[in-house]
Amino acid sequence: MKVLQNKLLILIVSSALIPALVVMAIAFSNYGRIVENNSGQIMQLMCSEKRQVIDEKLLNIEQSVHTIYHVATEQYSNSDSLWQDEEQFLEHISRMRELMETTVKYTDGAVSVYYRLDSAIQGPKQGVWLVQDENGDYIEQEMTDISLYDEEDIEHVGWYYIPIANGKETWMNPYYNQNMDEEIISYVIPIIIDEKTIGVVGMDIATKLLYENTKNVTVYDSGYAFLMDSEGEFVYHPDMKGNTISEEFNMQHTYLYEKSILSVENQSVENYRWNDTDKRLTAQKLRNGMIFTVCVTEQEIKQPQQKTLIDSILVILIIMSGFVAVTVFLTKAIVRLIYTDAMTQVGNKTAYNECVDLLCKRIRDKEQIDFLIAVVDINDLKTVNDTYGHEYGDKLIQNGASILKKVWGSDYTYRVGGDKFVI
Known about the structure:
15 strands, 19% strand, alpha+beta, seven-stranded antiparallel beta sheet, single chain
């Protein structure tokens, strides 16, 4: 009886559990892909949002420099004698100074602005250069004498020669400016008319401003952003110590640059490994060609998926526990119906045959067992049925079964025929 009960229990539970596990596996797999896609989209949206904040500052610089450039070139076209007439030239410089001072005050992040004329036109120091002081005011400084420096001296005169060599508006990579004693990024437009170099107009933004904007970015709980220039040199990374880069860090920087470039080109989220941790990154280019990248650990991305899996398993365990409890109860009831005589509530012939088979097996296995078999029937059952009817006969059978159960117990009493019992 217990064998059948166990078989029924296993069959019913497995028939419910296996489809449930299959459905859960499919659902979890689909959910995993959704989490992957969503996490990638979230990272790209965060990267885009933070990149736009920095780009707005860069755009303001560009617009301000273009304003100064257009005013300057317009004054050239309105006067043929500007460079020959000293009074007219000084008035031009005065107007440009006033325009530059007004413009730079309303340009967020600008630390200096300059309008530098070529030495061949008005001497080695001619132009206007305004530098922000510690109080936020823009003070005019003496123009750098570019004739004192080599054209390849980026720290002193790169801001002048590089845009002219490019022949177009130029965002320079971060560099330490010796004249200002500060690391800056310059946006410069060369003034070239009829293939003749007139000079340059430009603005500088402190690198630390972009540094701070990048440093303050958070992605999920542990993610962060980092910034590289257009050549792959780090401007900011949380693993940098000040402006110094460890040898180990420097060895990996090319790897990060390649991953970031791949993300920019494919507009994708890339997997990479950093400090023995699996991570993901997505990157976008700033207006000045620098690369802004956000990254987060693989584990943090998968946390929602893992939590959902654990919650799903707990729910399934709770449901299955209830299901097993109900199944056990129903299985016992079914087995009871199969092995119990309905009239007397003792074992029926099926139960008796199984008991005999088990007993024979134990005998064949040479187990040392003691057993007794007694066959009992009810006398005069036919007379009672004929005289008082079958209802009274059934009652007599039930009473007889009750007496046997009291003596031997229901587990050892079987009804194998009309009035025949075996103990």
